[in-house]
């Protein structure tokens, strides 16, 4: 049985279309790329979560979630606990800049749209290049992705 966990992330797009991502290494998942974000605190909305996480992980306080891009669920182990994480993924536009804060051991990078499609390592959420290139009318709800 996996513990339910709510999370939210925010995809930051630069004026040139590059995406700000972290490269992480999870013992279960391995190396993967993902936008800033994380678990929601009790009583916190997804929008509040992405604002807080963006501030904690980059020091940026001037960006707001503009629209919900997608939702998805996935299973992994978080701090030794098997979880089924439901994520809200938002998108926003922002300047191409370095983080004000840099957490030790976390590698970040602005990734061009061309490179995003050919990273060669898993990317969370799934199909991110397609989602950013598409003109879908509203958010895509993937459900459980294994």
From TrEMBL:
Residues of the signal peptide: none
Known InterPro entries for this protein?
A: Nudix_hydrolase, NUDIX_hydrolase-like_dom_sf, NUDIX_hydrolase_CS, NUDIX_hydrolase_dom
What Pfam family does this protein match (any one)? NUDIX
Q: Which UniProt keywords apply?
A: Hydrolase, Magnesium
Q: CDD domains recorded for this chain?
A: NUDIX_Hydrolase
The cofactor named in the record is: Mg(2+)
Ranges for the Nudix hydrolase domain?
A: 3-133
Its family remark reads:
Belongs to the Nudix hydrolase family.
Know the name of this protein?
Nudix hydrolase domain-containing protein
Please give the organism.
Answer: Streptomyces polychromogenes
Q: What is the lineage of its organism?
A: Bacteria, Bacillati, Actinomycetota, Actinomycetes, Kitasatosporales
């Amino acid at each position: 049985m996996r513990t339910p966990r709510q999370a939210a992330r925010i995809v930051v797009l630069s004026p040139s279309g590059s995406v700000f991502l972290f490269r992480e290494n999870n013992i279960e998942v391995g190396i993967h790329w993902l936008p800033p974000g994380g678990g929601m605190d009790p009583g916190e909305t997804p929008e509040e979560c992405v604002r807080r996480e963006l501030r904690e992980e980059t020091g940026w306080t001037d960006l707001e979630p503009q629209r919900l891009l997608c939702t998805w669920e996935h299973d992994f182990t978080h701090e030794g606990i098997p979880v089924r994480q439901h994520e809200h993924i938002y998108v926003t536009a922002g300047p191409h800049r370095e983080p004000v804060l840099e957490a030790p051991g976390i590698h970040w990078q602005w990734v061009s749209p061309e490179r995003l499609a050919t990273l060669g390592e898993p990317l969370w959420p799934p199909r991110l290049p397609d989602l950013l290139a598409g003109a879908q009318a509203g958010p895509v709800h993937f459900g459980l992705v294994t």
